């Protein structure tokens, strides 16, 4: 005889039960009142099996009185009057159970019941050490029985729950302390159409005062040099961990304890980032890193620690920061580069990029180097200057500053041009007046001598008349006050004087 259900889907069942190992199990052949039949047969199919295994078969036509015992493997199964099965669950009892009721040669009822077994795991084993990573895990067999599930805190707050493998529900509590004590609940949701779809199992947690025994893995380290406000990548171990911490040791500080500048608990969805606002988390889902845009006071050593269960993976980055600036005075332009994390620096120097052999006046103090450029800037001192910092590891970083050639003052050029425009017309007028006077006087003398033939007259007898003629002619061509106010006096003066000169030459 082959039951109809043997050809059905492996995950089909009418009802389901979820039990823990060692607890009592009762599987009923009928959910209602007992139905008389001639033959009742119980069969079982384990998760990885493809066929049914007979548990027992009993003829019920004459009724079942008391209880019957049947042996299945190394265990005893009890059969009661309602043809139900009772036994104590063991690790291998999970699977589907089939009850067949037959009347004559026909099967008129069959029922499949799923029995799922859950195993709760607490690690590390009690007592739980303080500051350890607590793991709460529920393993359900068969795995297809689980539709989902959630771990709840003692305050019934849902915790992040993942399924690392089919049938497994896992949550973690990194860095536990006494505040994490209490009763935790795993709520398991069953697939299928069972009348009861949710089962809850609890586990008590008590954190001990003894410290955890963390194992540290290989520690990686690197060196980095950066200009102030440039981007520096702080790498973390390539581990998708439970908990991340970043410590910072300040640059050039002696006997100073590190500061915790970042911590993240992905299970509790808790993150703290202080006091480094320029530190940004980069998380691609598999591993994390940080971007830092440092100022001088951000230099130092950064150590990223990733916790996974009872192991710690570490990676550190030492950051040296270089910052440059320029300050001018009446006699010089001072170019200064300041650097932090001096223990990593091999050398620092200023150079003129276009003239590397140019000797710069330089003065140095601890953590600062200043080069002076004399003012005004000449073609020899103009150009690009660079402050180069080299680490002991060989890595370099450079700050550059461009010193332009001092331009000629525009006001001085305009003043010289204005003076030239004023002087030239004045000189021209003076020369013109002198030439005109000589020409005018000579012409007048000649005309007088030719008019009074035979008579000699002193041409300088009345010189005042001659001056009046000259002044009247000059004043008639002098520029008006309006022209002076318009700013055209120099040009008009020159024009008028040239005209006068041309008229009388």
From TrEMBL:
GO terms for biological process: interleukin-15-mediated signaling pathway; positive regulation of ERK1 and ERK2 cascade; T cell activation. Keywords: Membrane, Transmembrane, Transmembrane helix. GO terms for cellular component: external side of plasma membrane; membrane raft. Signal peptide: none annotated. Residues 14-117, 123-208, 221-322 form the Immunoglobulin domain. The chain crosses the membrane at residues 412-436. GO terms for molecular function: MHC class II protein binding; protein tyrosine kinase binding. This is G6f-like. It comes from Astyanax mexicanus (Blind cave fish).
């Amino acid at each position: 005889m082959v039951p109809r259900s043997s050809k059905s889907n492996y995950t089909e069942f009418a009802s389901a039960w979820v039990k823990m190992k060692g607890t009592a199990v009762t599987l009923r052949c009928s959910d209602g009142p007992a139905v008389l039949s001639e033959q009742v047969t119980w069969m079982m199919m384990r998760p990885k099996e493809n066929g049914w295994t007979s548990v027992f078969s009993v003829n019920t036509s004459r009724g079942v009185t008391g209880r019957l015992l049947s042996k299945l493997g190394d265990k005893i199964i009890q059969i009661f009057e309602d043809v139900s099965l009772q036994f104590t669950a063991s690790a291998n009892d999970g699977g589907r159970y089939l009850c067949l009721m037959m009347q004559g040669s026909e099967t008129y009822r069959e029922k499949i019941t799923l029995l799922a077994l859950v195993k709760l795991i607490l690690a590390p084993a009690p007592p739980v050490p303080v500051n350890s990573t607590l793991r709460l895990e529920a393993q359900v067999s068969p795995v297809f029985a689980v539709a989902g599930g959630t771990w709840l805190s003692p305050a019934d707050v849902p915790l992040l729950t993942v399924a690392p493998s089919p049938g497994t529900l896992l949550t973690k509590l990194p860095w536990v302390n006494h505040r994490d004590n209490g009763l935790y609940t795993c709520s398991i949701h069953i697939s299928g159409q069972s009348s009861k779809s949710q089962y809850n199992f609890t586990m008590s947690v008590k954190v001990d005062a003894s410290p955890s025994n963390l194992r540290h893995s290989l520690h990686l380290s690197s060196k980095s040099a950066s200009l102030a406000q440039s981007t520096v990548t702080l790498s973390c171990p390539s581990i998708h961990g439970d908990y991340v911490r970043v410590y910072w040791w300040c640059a050039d500080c002696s006997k100073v304890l590190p500061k915790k500048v970042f911590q993240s608990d992905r299970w509790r969805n808790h993150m703290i980032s202080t006091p480094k606002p320029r530190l940004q988390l980069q998380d691609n889902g598999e591993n994390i890193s940080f971007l830092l845009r440092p100022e001088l006071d951000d230099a130092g050593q950064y150590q990223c620690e990733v916790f996974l269960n009872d192991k710690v993976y570490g990676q550190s980055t030492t950051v040296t920061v270089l910052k440059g600036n320029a300050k001018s005075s009446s006699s010089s332009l001072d170019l200064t580069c300041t650097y932090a994390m001096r223990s990593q620096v091999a050398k620092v120097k200023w150079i003129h990029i276009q003239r590397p052999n140019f000797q710069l006046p330089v003065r140095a103090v601890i953590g600062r180097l200043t080069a002076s450029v004399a003012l005004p800037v000449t073609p020899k001192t103009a150009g690009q200057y660079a402050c180069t910092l080299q680490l002991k590891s060989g890595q370099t970083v450079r700050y550059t500053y461009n010193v332009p050639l001092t331009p000629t003052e525009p006001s001085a050029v305009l003043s010289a041009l204005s003076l030239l425009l004023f002087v030239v017309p004045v000189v021209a007028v003076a020369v013109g007046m002198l030439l005109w006077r000589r020409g005018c006087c000579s012409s007048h003398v000649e005309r007088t001598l030719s008019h009074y033939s035979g008579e000699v007259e002193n041409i300088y007898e009345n010189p005042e008349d001659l001056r009046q003629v000259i002044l009247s002619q000059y004043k008639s061509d002098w520029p008006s006050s309006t022209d002076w106010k318009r700013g055209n006096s120099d040009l008009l003066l020159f024009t008028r004087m040239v005209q006068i000169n041309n008229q009388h030459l």
